[in-house]
Write a structure and sequence with these properties.
Oligomer: single chain
Radius of gyration: 37 Å
Number of helices: 16
Strand content: 15-25%
Structural class: alpha+beta
Number of domains: 4
Shape: elongated
InterPro entries: FAR1_DNA_bnd_dom, MULE_transposase_dom
Pfam family, one: FAR1
Number of strands: 19
Distance between the termini: 76 Å
Length: about 600
């Protein structure tokens, strides 16, 4: 197709052209393109273009559906010519619609003076790269065709271009796309280290210089996924949902607060439900674990099996430890366990737990946990002798008269007659003292205590629990490998590329319409959409705190220079180190000159001798 455009040199007084004058002459150019523009609708249309041979005028031959595609187009052009682009000013019409966008060189403008000598900055200032480069590209919106096109182009740079092997480290070209992150995550799930994954990327693209990101970018991508807003809550629900495919009896339930944040989350798998059906006559109810980022109590419902091993019936994460919260948890437990109530519940003595158990399990015996009692005795009395005697009173099978006598002797010996915790424990002696548990009625001897307990279980696991779909990963790797093989064959042949990209586009539309799965995360829960579910608020501690990692007060140690030891800079920017290095380099040069001079004299002497 014959290119039809007119090149117009703008004068310095023409404000519409924003002309510029330099020592080398007028550098700002405006092109009025008269021909038919070629549509660029996405990255797939850019694969057949040779940006390396593009002239600035040829950029006007194309139009785009939106500003993002236009910026990608110009950024690809900048990559092939040794610089990178970034977005700059926009212009709006009277309806506040964006009608013009300016793309500039990454070295456009200057660093503001207030950022050059900032005395209170926390991190060391980066190297100054802005040098006032005037290169830019302006795209404008055509209301008739509803397309964006290049209206202005200035391709003059006042700085040298970057070598090809360093292009990938410019800010506009450095970074990981979604496909790179997905591939990295698959490798990490296989146990491959990040540095080795980086080597795999380099092998795919033909060398480390062609990788558009660094190892640190990979670490940053992993950290960003962990810290991304709302991801933890949605990821937790997505993981529980994935368990449903292999465990049909998997149960979970959650609540959301008024701000759209996850409040309470309860879950129990099929194995836990089966264990509760057999071993759920005694239920341990504990909420002392807070080892998570949001300090939310982790509530564990557990018991023991016929081998005296701990078995977990259900688990929950809650935002607070109020009575209403515990009532909601116990109601969820009843719902998933088909209404079966425990005969005895063991807790740490929390008042909210006690009231909730009384409301939901009115016929259950409430007992206190021996481990918590020993720990509380140690922290409240701080006497090894008292802890030893209290443990014997709790676990030994005394008669009631002997229990009262030994209790009084212990209180008198340790001098804790007025200790509030000791007085409170005496009032609750029926809940923890073995002396008040006389015998086990024969009607309470359950089948689970017999040897044929396994015959009662007919639960069959229908697959491994977890979100790791090994077959899906294998299929992904197989398709990815075949695509790379196709890429290596057709990327150097324009005709093969055009044929392949057309086939892929057609097949992509067919596959997407036939096999695309709707996002299951859009299920609504109590009037809220999971898609916008936020992370839980950091919970306030209840009777616990202090040793929590990441709490305020653990200030980061300031780094200091490895050469002079002064805080505020490093060795590479140390003035003393640069001065010493400059002195050493200069002395090396002087030594070389002396050696060269001495060699010449010797040669002259040899010549004289020869004559």
């Amino acid at each position: 197709m014959e290119t039809e455009y007119e090149e117009q040199i703008c004068s310095p007084t023409d404000n519409s052209c924003e002309g510029l004058e330099t020592e080398s002459g007028t550098i700002n150019m405006k092109f009025d393109y008269k021909g038919h523009r070629i549509p660029i609708n996405g990255v797939e249309d850019m694969g057949g273009l040779n940006f390396k041979k593009f002239t600035p005028a040829e950029l006007l031959q194309y139009d785009f559906p939106n500003r993002e595609v236009a910026f990608t187009f110009y950024n690809w052009y900048s990559r092939m010519h040794g610089f990178s682009a970034r977005k700059n000013r926009i212009r709006r019409n009277k309806d506040q619609e964006v009608v013009q966008q300016e793309f500039v060189c990454y070295r456009q403008g200057f660093r503001e003076d207030r950022f050059k000598d900032n005395k209170i900055r926390q991190r060391e200032a980066k190297v100054v790269t802005r040098c006032g480069c005037e290169a830019k590209c302006t795209v404008h919106f055509d209301h008739i065709n509803q397309r964006w096109y290049v209206r202005w182009i200035n391709d003059y740079h006042n700085h040298p271009f970057v070598e090809e092997k360093f292009i990938g480290f410019l800010p506009g070209h450095r970074g990981m796309d979604d496909d790179d992150i997905l591939q990295m995550n698959h490798h990490k799930k296989s146990g491959i280290r990040t540095s080795q994954i980086f080597g795999s990327f380099a092998n795919q693209v033909g060398g480390y210089e062609h990788v558009t990101f660094s190892v640190q970018d990979m670490y940053n991508a992993v950290d960003k996924e962990r810290r991304s807003k709302g991801t933890d809550s949605r990821a937790a629900l997505a993981y529980l949902r994935s368990l449903k495919s292999s465990d049909p009896t998997m149960y979970w339930k959650h609540t959301v607060d008024k701000q759209g944040r996850l409040e309470h989350l309860f879950w129990s798998d099929g194995r836990s439900q089966m264990d509760y059906n057999i071993f759920g006559d005694v239920l341990a109810f504990d909420a002392t674990y807070k080892k998570n980022r949001y300090l939310c109590p982790l509530v564990i419902f557990s018991g023991v099996n016929h081998h005296n091993q701990t078995t977990v019936f259900a688990t929950a994460i809650v935002a607070n430890e109020t009575e209403e919260t515990y009532v909601w948890l116990l109601e969820c437990l009843l719902e998933v366990m088909n209404g079966k109530m425990p005969k005895s519940v063991i807790t740490d003595g929390d008042l909210a737990m006690k009231n909730a158990i009384r409301r939901v399990f009115p016929n259950a015996h409430h007992r206190l946990c021996a481990w918590h009692l020993i720990r509380n005795a140690t922290s409240n009395v701080k006497s090894n002798r008292f802890t030893h005697l209290f443990r014997k009173l709790m676990l030994c099978d005394y008669e009631l008269v002997d229990f009262e006598r030994k209790w009084n002797d212990m209180v008198t010996e340790c001098g804790v007659e007025d200790n509030n915790w000791v007085l409170d424990m005496y009032e609750k002696k029926e809940m923890w003292a073995t002396a008040h548990i006389r015998e086990i009625p024969s009607s309470l001897v359950l089948d689970r205590w017999t040897k044929n307990v396994k015959d009662l279980s007919n639960y069959t696991r229908q697959g491994q629990s977890g979100g790791w779909d090994s077959m899906s990963v294998c299929r992904y790797k197989s398709l990815n490998q075949r695509c790379r093989e196709i890429n290596s064959l057709v990327c150097k042949n324009p005709e093969a590329y055009a044929e392949t990209i057309e086939l892929l586009n057609d097949h992509y539309g067919h596959v997407k319409s036939k096999y695309e799965v709707q996002d299951e995360g859009s299920d609504k829960m109590e009037g809220h959409n999971e898609r916008y579910l936020q992370n839980p608020v950091i919970a306030r501690t209840k009777g616990r705190g202090g040793n929590v990692a990441g709490r305020a007060g653990n200030k980061r140690k300031k780094s200091q220079c490895g050469f002079c030891g002064i805080v505020g800079h490093n060795k590479q920017t140390c003035a003393a180190f640069k001065k010493q290095k400059k002195t050493v380099d200069k002395s090396d040069v002087d030594d070389d000159e002396e050696d060269d001079g001495g060699g010449d004299d010797d040669d002259d002497d040899d010549d004289d001798d020869y004559r």
